[in-house]
Structures are given as C-alpha cells and as structure tokens.
Amino acid sequence: GILILMFFWDVQFGILFLFFMPALLLFMRQFMRKLTPIHRKSRKAHGILTASIRDTFDGIREIKIYGQEAQMFSQFDKWNQEYLDTVVQSSIIRAKWIPMMPYLLSLLSVFFLMIGGLLYINGEITLGLIVGVTTYFGLITRPLRELLPGIHGFNHSKAATERMLEIFNIERSIKDTPNACQLRNIKGKIDYVNVSFSYFEGTQILYNIDLKIKPGEMVAFVGPSGVGKTTLLSLITRFYEVDNGNILIDDIDIKDCTLKSLRQQIGTLMQNTFLFDGSIADNIRFGNPGATMDQLEKAAETAQIADFIHSLPKKYNSLIGERGIKLSGGQAQRLCLARVLVTDPKILILDEPTAEVDAITDSKLISAVRNLMKNKTTLVIAHRLWTIKNADRIVVMKDGRIVAIGSHNELINTRKFYQEFFASQFKDNTSKDEGEKI
Ligand SMILES: Nc1ncnc2c1ncn2[C@@H]1O[C@H](COP(=O)(O)OP(=O)(O)OP(=O)(O)O)[C@@H](O)[C@H]1O
Ligand SMILES: [Mg+2]
C-alpha cells in the first residue's frame, strides 16, 4: 500500500524504492544461506549428543563394570564440543548480520533525505512530500528490521523439521498397498514360500525358506546363534520386507493386508523387551487398554507372574521403573509375556530368553502358554528342552537355511546335525531336569 502511495506522490521516489527492495531481499537470502547448513549440522550434532547421553544412562552398569568412564566422558566431550561449535558459529553469523540490517536501512534513510533535499532545493518537490516519504519509509522498513531475528528462528525450526521428516520418511518405507485388505478372524495358517532376506545388500541372511505351519500348531525353532531365527520370525510382522518370495497368513500375502490389522493378529515377545515407567496394570494393559481386571489376572497367571504381583503391597497398582520397584530379568520377561497375552493374539511369537527364567518356572510357563494357545499358532525360538518337547514340530536352522523339520524324537534319531547341535548345547541329554537350557 505504502509503495503505491509513493508512486502516487512522486514517481522518482517510487522507482528508487523499487530498486532497493530487491537488494534488501537479496541481503536476507544471503543471511539464510549462511545459516541453513550450520543449523543442519547443529540439529545432527544435537541428536547424536542426546542419543549418547541416553546410552550412557541405559548402559551405566556396563560402563562401570568395564571401567569405561573416562572413555565415555571423552566421547561425550567430543560430541558436546561439536554441538557447541555449531551453536557458536551460528551465533557469530547472527552477531555479524543482524545489526547490519538496521544499519543498512538507516543509510537508506540518509540517502532518501539527501535526494529529497536536493530535489527540494531545485524546487521540484515540496517539504511536506519529503516528510511524508521519510515517515512512510520508516513504516515500511520496520517489519524488515524485525524480520531478520525472525529468520534465525525460522531457519532453526526448518533444520529441525528436516531432521524429523528424515526419520518419518524412513518409517514410511514399509506401507500399506492402495487396496490393502483387513486381516480378520484368521485361523493362523502361515506359509513361507521361497523367502530370501538381507538387511543390507550383499549380506544375505535367509536363503529360500519354504515352511508350512498349520493353524494351532506349536513350532520350535532351533539352531546356532546368528543363523537367522529371530530374523525369520520378525518378517511375519513385516518390520522388514522380504527380498524374494512371499509370506502368507491364511493364504493372504502379508503385503496385501494393512500393517495394523496384520500386527493386531500377532503377539510378539522378542529377546529385548521394554517396560514403561508406570503401574504393572498399565504395562500389561498397554496393547489392550480396554482389558478388564479379570483378563489382566488371567494373562498374569499364564505368564507365571501373578504370584509375584500379589506379593507386592500395592499389587497391580505397584509402580515399576525409575520411581518404582525394580524387576529381575525373568520377572520383566514374564510381565512382557502377560502384556502380549492380554491382547489375545491369534498367532504368538516367542523369542525365548536364554537365561532369565529358572527351570521350574520355565516348564510351568511353557505348559501354561501351550494350554492357553491350544488352538492358536505358536512359534517359539527355543533354548530349552522343555519347550522343544512341547512343540509339535521343530525347525532346525543352519546358516540361514532350514536343514531339518520334525519332532524331537524323529530328529534326534535321524539327523546328524541335530544330534551334534543338541549334544553341544545340552551336556546331559538323558537328564530329567527338563527346564535345562539346550
Ligand atoms: N537389525 C539388524 N540389522 C542388520 N543385521 C542384523 C539385524 N539383526 C540381525 N542381524 C544379523 O542377521 C544375522 C541373523 O541374526 P538373528 O538375530 O536373526 O540370529 P538368531 O538366529 O536369532 O541368533 P540368536 O540365537 O543369537 O538370537 C546375524 O548375522 C546378525 O548380525
Ligand atoms: Mg535371536
């Protein structure tokens, strides 16, 4: 509006103004150009810094046991310094550039006054016009003066948003197909058809896996560490996409149904589980917020954790985590199992802990789970003899391949690799202590 007024009053001033505006905008653009890369670096350094702080707290025991305090401190110092450097750099640029704007604008005002004065002396314009133009010039430039500190904030947020979007975009690499169907009321049949998989190009983990699992079957997976047992089972929940082949549930390719409906059917208890700060009830209810007290109790009983919960003064309202009671590894595992069971999964995947649960609890636990999952499919990565004996079939894996399938008795009599593996893992395989680790 002011610009039009300028033209209306005096064409020369209008043109002069139009000439200076792009110069000012160019100045601001330069400012942004200087700041953006530093802000990007700064966000990245900040991310690494906070991650390293979190790791230090999570791993405080390990750090102390291995005497790595000094090493961790110097690492922290390095990241901290890196972050500090970016903050200092950005401050220097701001300190240099931001005061320049008012300075430039003031120079312009002087320039305008000089031209105005000359024109007045030559009698081309009136005094009133000069006063008018300079007043309005002040008005039009005030927002510009205020814009520059604002650009810093904008730029900072832009860098932060970019980092966030980067992370969101990674998450989105697995998504629903446009016509994805809902997986409902499944029977629990699972088919791996010629499945190959690698986390990174060039290092294949699974080779041509063919496996048919009947509804309601309990299948145990065994094999040396690192052969791909966990990987094979985590493909069912589609946290990773297979390279080749297909995984079908009730004859539906899991790629063709929505991730949400797929994961609703499946309960997973993986090797490293996580409990939230909060009450025991809240933690068990996590996957099924509407669960009744009865359902909680039943899940806790099956997971062999109910007795422990009842031994606590506040029972299900006991707080766990930072400000509450500390759980042993086995108790945490069983609580996590209760959390899975309360979602009433149609398919249950257990990555059996190798050490956390004692032998007696363990055999009770597997029997209870077996009982609860009678008509539901259960896949368990087994480290214990009791689990293997309870399974309908055992899948033996070696170097990313399935090398044998059968019951324990079949395999122990016919398969050399299984015999050897079994003997190496299980010192006294005629023993009666069934919960012993294999
Ligand atoms: N998230 C991941 N990213 C990259 N590589 C991975 C990842 N998880 C596992 N691997 C690699 O895949 C291979 C198989 O790992 P996996 O965890 O499936 O083995 P496993 O049979 O479950 O072993 P364990 O009995 O020790 O649990 C290993 O070589 C491992 O290094
Ligand atoms: Mg594993």
Description:
The protein is α/β, with parallel strands linked by helices and 438 residues long. It is 55% helix and 15% strand. Strand 1 (190-200) and strand 2 (203-213) form a beta hairpin. Helix 5 runs antiparallel to helix 6 (127-171). The radius of gyration is 34 Å and the shape is elongated. Adenosine-5'-triphosphate binds at residues 199, 205, 225-231.
CATH architectural category of the largest domain: 3-Layer(aba) Sandwich
What is the C-level CATH assignment of the largest domain?
Alpha Beta
Given helix and strand content, the structural type is: alpha/beta
List the total number of helices: 16
Query: What's the main sheet like?
Result: 6 strands, mixed
Question: Globular, elongated, flat, extended or rod-shaped: what is the shape?
Answer: elongated
Mean pLDDT: 81
Bound molecules: adenosine-5'-triphosphate, magnesium ion
Helix content bin: 55-70%
Range of strand content: 5-15%
Tally of distinct domains: 2
Radius of gyration, taken over Cα atoms and rounded to an integer in Å: 34 Å
Strand order of the largest sheet: 6-9-10-3-11-12
> Helix and strand succession?
HHHHHHEEEHEEHEEHHHEHEHEHEEHH
CATH topology-level name of the largest domain: Rossmann fold
Q: What is the CA–CA distance across the termini?
A: 83 Å
Low-confidence stretches: 428-438
> What assembly state would you assign to the polypeptide chains in this entry?
single chain
